[in-house]
Amino acid sequence: MDNLEEQIRVEVMDAVDLSVDISDEALLRLIKEKIIQMGRIRPVSLKERKRIESHVFNSLRKLDVLEDLLNDEEITEIMINGPDNIFIEKNGRVIHSEEKFSSEEKLNDIIQSIVGSSNKVVNESNPIVDTRLKDGSRVNIVLPPAAVDYSIISIRKFPKEQMTMDRLKSYGSISAEQIELLRKLVISGYNIFVSGGTGSGKTSFLNALGEFIPKDERVITIEDSAELQLKNVENIVRLEARNANLEGNNEITIRDLLKSSLRMRPDRIIVGECRGAEALEMLQAFNTGHDGSCSTGHSNSCKDMLSRLETMVLMGAEIPLTAIRQQIASGIDVIVQLGRLRDKSRKLLEISEVIGLEDNEILLNPLYKFKEIEEVKGRIVGEWEKIGSLKRRDKLLASGLSI
Which domain range does residue 10 map to? Predict the structure, then answer.
């Protein structure tokens, strides 16, 4: 923050009557007056005036330098490593932002503002928290002593408009043929698991799949931080987990919400992401008549996702591996693997059908795989190769559909 901007901010703070709740409009008027007064001493260009006006207002009422970054629709990720180091992801590239917080105290004030708005707590005794902003952006915060040097904020922004299959197609992330297949699978009630690495677009893809859910169905979403925006679904219940309080009480886990959701007459249950022991309840939900349920998880391939699910279930219960694999094979119908290529583009890399258990091994039937052909001017060019055909068509036939 330059000296002029800081001087105006201090003068505005001195001029504000703390005994009166001043409105945003009144505060903005006061800032403009101070800039005009200062302009008589030191000439200020119109561009600089607008910048100072925005920065001072955001520092007093909103999220300081974060506000402009959040309003920039080209930015998809914001990574704050202490007050002086802010990195942003823009058009798939990570760059060092020129923005800085005025002090570490200001950064910590912003952290408490973000956390307080969602009724969560973060401090030295509870230094890690996941939350979200009002616009749905996902936020992860890590404070000292868990963070060695400074407080860390990681923000994953989501598009203001809901992601659709048509938009994914326009980006070259999926083909029309695959969209038609997935549309029929969702309508028919196939249980779909979306897997991929960090930043591969799993949540956005799940939102896009939601446009195919019939409007007369009751859908329950369960997430750590509510991010899904299934705007096409009318009868929707959104559930969100909660961390324990300072005394270690009142925690509400994904497992708790999954158990409760079974008593809420759902047609479909959508679990935002499986990270641990809740995978067992997720599989039980998939196996108890809630056809068309979905979830996501981190993995490098469809086959790896099966192994990760086994490990996650074992984190929560001592169950024979054969029983776990039987649950996976009967509960999950299709796995969709997403990925981020080296040119930073997001692609659907594979669609595989889970066809059963043989010799205690889960069998996959690959339907589509993305094949890279060449690289042109830094962009990867490829095509989706059709590998096989859907074998388990009972749900399709029951819905009166065919492929």
Answer: 1-61
Residue 341: Cβ within 10 Å count: 17
Q: Which of 45, 99, 49, 53 is nearest to 72 (CA)?
A: 99
Q: Are 153 and 77 in contact (CB under 8 A)?
A: no
**CA 164, CA 291: separation in Å to the nearest integer?**
22
Q: How confident is the model at residue 19 (pLDDT cuts 50, 70, 90)?
A: low
* Cβ-proximal residues to 116 (8 Å cutoff; 6+ apart), any chain: none
Cβ–Cβ under 8 Å, residues 186 and 270: no
Kindly report which listed range (8-22, 25-39, 219-233) carries the lowest average pLDDT score.
8-22
User: What's the CA gap between 385 and 299, in Å, rounded?
Assistant: 21
pTM of the model: 0.80
Same domain, 334 and 187: yes
Helix, strand, coil share (%) of the chain residues, nearest 5: 35, 25, 40
How many domains does the chain divide into?
Answer: 3
For residues 276 and 296, state if they share a domain: yes
- pLDDT higher at 33 or 276: 276
Whole-angstrom Cα distance, residue 380 to residue 343? Answer: 7
Q: Indicate the DSSP class of residue 212.
A: G
Query: Can you state the angle between helices 254-261 and 279-286, rounded to 10 degrees?
Result: 20
Instruction: Give the tens place of pLDDT for each residue, 68-79.
Output: 888 888 898 999
Task: Measure the CA–CA gap between 110 and 86, rounded to whole angstroms.
Answer: 14
Contact between 355 and 364 under an 8 Å Cβ cutoff? The reply is yes
Kindly report the CA angle at 135 between 132 and 139, in degrees rounded to 5?
Answer: 25
